[in-house]
Amino acid sequence: MSPVSHNRKKDMETLLDAEQIRLTSQVRFRAVGEEGVLVHLENGRVIVVNEVGLFLVQQLASPVTRPELARAVTREFAVSADRVQADLQLYLEELDREQVIEYST
Amino acid sequence: MYKDRILRRVRERRLLHSVSLELTFQCNLHCYYCYNDRLKTGNMLSLDQYRVLLRDLAEMQTLFLMLTGGEPMLHPDFFEIGKLAQDLGFVVRVRTNGHILNRDNCTRLREEVAPYMIEVSLHGATADVHDRQTRVPGSFDRLLKNLSTAMDVGLRCSVVTTPTAWNEHQIEEMLALCDALGLPLRFQGPVGPRDNGDTEPLALQPAQATWDLISALQKQRRHDAMPSPAQDQAADLFSEEQPEERAMCGVGVSGVDIDPFGNVQACMHLQEPAGNLHRQSIKDIWNHSPLFQQARQRAVSAAKQFTDTSPRQFGAPLYCIAVEENIRQIKKVRQGVDSAPVLIDYFDKINRV
């Protein structure tokens, strides 16, 4: 696996279905009740995520593709595939901005 | 959001959010006012027991793990424990005197433990003052060299100092030294009795004016330099939070201390164990011992004496119930009022020496 450097922001529009996404090794997280806390070791940032965010982060602990993520979210939260696709796109962009995730093919 | 909502939830649900592991009481310095009870004995936890403990803590969603001592890096399994902590997803902080932070150890730390922060102890702004307190000649020069190496290797470092009668004339110089190094300096105190109640260190208490100077300098610095939001978060992550109910500290609410012999305590300085990992799991101890709630209640009660005034203890702008209780306990023993077996045992050993 060869993670993409976070010196450049990932263009989510170009994210291929086969590309795997995972948390970077610089991130630690734990569940606190229904929410999650992420600590970025390198930049010191602390990020709080909601229930859906925690579920995603837990999935991203191991490499996973965007379609796999979408299916997992659909199963867990019983929402439509279209809605999940749109929300997932936004959420991954946010995690990317926070330098929390990395990609590989 | 973390402090406002998450820490509140941690406390409300009694989640074991942070754990301090005192890996060993051994040390390569000999600081005059050190609080550790070096006469405390017991069966050291084995590496296998640390493995079980850390896996249990990961299951309990404990986030923060502090490796401390004594000098934690002297523990023969320090790097194995640190590596396991990294693998299990803890945010690790290492509190060290920095004496063996050479390049090899710094590199191993970064690669095997990946700590969030290394916190080192500074005792003065010059070698004569620092070395007088550590009682190890050359420790100041070595610390500065090692700090430089640690930063060069890419470890995030911070510095902590305890104001004493021997270094209080160098408060501003210590701040200037840390500024020059580009490191934050935190003042901790007051000088407390040793954890066995020995009050000898109290002779080094600085003047209250020193704490007033520190408060004024810190206020000035906050005013002069507003940190970026990210820096602010990094600096605040381990700061003591005031729980919702007014209490002197967060004891008993969301964290524990575990000594080298497996004793689980509500606080590093409150020596009464809630249980022992040789006999119980951390889950059993955290979920069933009444000691944590009792410690919490004592912290709440102590706060009531400061409803109209700011806390003060030996001049320092805080009040630590452990300092108070350890002093009170030793006074009782000296007066023959109480028969605390541990302390009497300690006095026996001292008398024999």
From TrEMBL, chain A:
Q: Which InterPro entries match?
A: PQQD, PqqD_sf
Q: Note the Pfam families from the entry.
A: PqqD
Full protein name? Coenzyme PQQ synthesis protein D (PqqD)
Automatic annotation (TrEMBL), chain B:
- Listed Gene3D superfamilies: Aldolase class I
Superkingdom of the organism of origin: Bacteria
Query: What cofactors are annotated for this protein?
Result: [4Fe-4S] cluster
Q: Which residues form the Radical SAM core domain?
A: 11-224
Q: Which UniProt keywords apply?
A: 4Fe-4S, Iron, Iron-sulfur, Metal-binding, S-adenosyl-L-methionine
Which Gene Ontology molecular-function terms are recorded?
4 iron, 4 sulfur cluster binding; catalytic activity; metal ion binding
Matching InterPro entries, A to Z?
4Fe4S-binding_SPASM_dom, Aldolase_TIM, PqqE-like, Radical_SAM_PqqE_MftC-like, rSAM, rSAM_sf
Q: Does the keyword Glycosyltransferase apply?
A: no
| Annotated protein name in UniProt | Radical SAM superfamily enzyme, MoaA/NifB/PqqE/SkfB family
Lineage, highest ranks first: Bacteria, Pseudomonadati, Thermodesulfobacteriota, Desulfobulbia, Desulfobulbales
